[in-house]
Structure to design on (453 residues):
């Protein structure tokens, strides 16, 4: 029996052959096997929360669009609603989080079927959701909630669910004077990363022990400026989560989709085909923003049918889906986000067998019948065909499977189905006539094929 990556590492460690001494080079860092839990999980929840949740207008880039780009909608919003001398920093005391109940959040996230969460500990605005030693008076302990929001979330998550903790952290900060000075020096100086970014990263890893670290916001500075490989060597060699932690690819200009534990490549990345390297599709339920928007119309929220389809297509192509919600400034998960999350959980209760712990099959989608995508479990000799549309005549043609006389087909959540081979190849499956209440789920359906290749 083949050893898993983690089991192999553990065994090699015992006999003294473990590759545990990672060097601060990309060649060495990239040689680390991806911990298996991440590939098996398939589905996580992203949480964008910060001072930008107070104006909750436009996007989480509110401050940058207002102050740097002076975009008219943002300028008008401030002019029409706040005094002339009101600054972005004045929003921080209004980031109150009085309704933030981490146990309630945990229940919602767990009900979605997600296996991990990724919380923004600090976005590009620089405000930290914990009492950072390196963010005096611009953190959630000193102003606003007066709470360690990261710590509260971590405690609730680990006490009430099997969800793994992931933390997002922005490398740069738009308007930090130290960052701006380094940028003006074309990154020939590195005062900002050595005095701010790197100390914060060490702090959140040692304090909260996340099993996923989601880096972002390189500000077009190279990884050498950020000393990314030096930090990652420590993370993989010495940190309290060195065995299980997973990292992404946003560690400096030029590293995205090239270095790191898994690739994100771009926001809302969906290649549509199998990649050789593990990847993730991070996307938003609100199609226009990562942060909460008070004025978002219903049409901007992606429907559950499309969210399920995105999950299936992502997993079929070997990726994980990280689906974002934006909480309100007072700590609520808006009902429309909660509904979408619980709907995902309803679908996964029936069809999770075709998502969790699966592998990409030799064909990602059916080349003849549109809207059919495949996953597989080689260890169980099972192929899963997931269809987005229920055929009107009840007949579903599948071009890709090679069938045998022993092939069996089961509709997950229902019963075995009849089928017949097609010429010159493929098969036709006869779906049952079911009433609405008899349907195993509402938005996509899974056929499990055994004894087929």
């Amino acid at each position: 029996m083949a050893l898993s990556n983690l089991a192999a590492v553990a065994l090699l460690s015992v006999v003294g052959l473990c590759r545990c001494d990672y060097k601060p080079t990309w060649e060495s860092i990239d040689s680390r096997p991806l911990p298996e839990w991440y590939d098996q999980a398939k589905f996580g929840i992203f949480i964008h929360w910060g001072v930008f949740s107070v104006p909750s207008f436009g996007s989480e880039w509110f401050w940058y669009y207002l102050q740097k780009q002076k975009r008219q909608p943002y300028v008008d919003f401030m002019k029409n609603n706040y005094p002339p001398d009101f600054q972005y920093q004045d929003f921080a005391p209004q980031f109150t989080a009085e309704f933030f109940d981490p146990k309630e959040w945990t229940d919602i996230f767990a009900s979605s079927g997600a296996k991990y969460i990724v919380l923004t500990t600090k976005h590009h605005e620089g405000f930290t959701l914990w009492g950072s030693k390196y963010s005096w008076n611009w953190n959630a302990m000193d102003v606003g909630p007066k709470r360690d929001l990261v710590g509260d979330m971590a405690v609730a998550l680990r006490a009430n669910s099997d969800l793994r903790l992931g933390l997002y952290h922005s490398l740069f900060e738009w308007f930090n004077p130290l960052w701006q000075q380094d940028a003006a020096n074309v990154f020939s100086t590195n005062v900002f990363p050595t005095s701010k970014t790197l100390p914060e990263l060490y702090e959140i890893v040692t304090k909260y022990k996340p099993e996923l670290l989601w880096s972002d916001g390189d500000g077009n500075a190279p990884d050498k400026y950020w000393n990314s490989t030096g930090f990652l060597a420590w993370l993989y060699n010495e940190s309290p989560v060195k065995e299980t932690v997973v990292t992404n690819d946003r560690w400096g200009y030029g590293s995205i989709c090239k270095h790191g534990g898994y690739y994100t490549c771009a926001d809302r990345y969906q290649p549509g085909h199998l990649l050789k390297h593990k990847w993730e599709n991070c996307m938003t339920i609100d199609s226009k923003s990562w942060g909460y928007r008070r004025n978002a119309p219903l049409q901007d929220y992606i429907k559950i049918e499309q969210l399920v389809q995105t999950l299936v297509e992502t997993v079929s192509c070997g990726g994980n889906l990280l689906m974002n919600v934006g909480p309100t400034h007072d700590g609520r998960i808006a009902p429309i986000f909660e509904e979408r999350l619980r709907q995902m959980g309803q679908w996964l209760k029936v069809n999770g067998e075709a998502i969790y712990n699966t592998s990409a099959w030799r064909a990602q989608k059916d080349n003849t019948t549109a809207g059919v995508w495949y996953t597989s479990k080689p260890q169980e000799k099972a192929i899963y065909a997931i269809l987005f549309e229920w055929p009107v005549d009840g007949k579903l043609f599948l071009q890709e499977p090679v069938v045998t006389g022993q092939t069996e087909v089961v509709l997950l959540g229902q019963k075995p189905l009849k089928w017949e081979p097609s010429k010159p190849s493929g098969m036709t499956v006869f779906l049952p006539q079911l009433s609405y209440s008899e349907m195993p789920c509402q938005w996509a359906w899974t056929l499990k094929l055994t004894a087929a290749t």
Notes: The radius of gyration is 24 Å.
